[in-house]
Amino acid sequence: MRVQLHPAVEGELARAAEWYEERVLGLGDALLDEVEHWFEVIAETPDTWPLWPGVRLRDPPVRRVLLGRFPHAIAYQAFEERVFVLAVASTSRKPCYWVTRTEDGSA
Questions:
Q1: Among 63, 73, 87, 99, which is least packed by CB within 10 angstroms?
Q2: How are beta strands 72-78 and 82-90 bridged, if at all?
């Protein structure tokens, strides 16, 4: 299954990686590596992960994966042929700021 990112995700992820890299050399790359790992896992088993709490039902529903090393979560929808990543969101940021990015399956 292919992974498709919402257009805003790449910029948000780049800014997060830059923020970590400014604090500790190599930490930004570590964030990107962990996110990439989870993209691969999600693509293989998209229905394994729990629904995002507090997000009203969507079709398909919004699921989440919590990163292990970083305080971030991946929000995504699993369609028949693709995974649509809505956000790689900081868990300390405004909750569900990305919810308007959901799709109804027609894309």
A1: 99
A2: antiparallel
**Cross-sheet strand order for the sheet of 72-78:** 2-5, 82-90, 72-78, 62-66
In the numeric block, the tokens 């257009």 are attached to 7
For 21-31, what is each residue's pLDDT tens digit?
Answer: 999 999 999 99
Confidence (pTM): 0.90
DSSP symbols for 73-90: EEEEEE-SSEEEEEEEEE
User: How many Å apart are CA 20 and CA 62, to the nearest integer?
Assistant: 27
pLDDT, averaged across the chain: 92
Residue type, 31: L
Domains of the chain, residue spans? 2-93
pLDDT value of position 80: 92
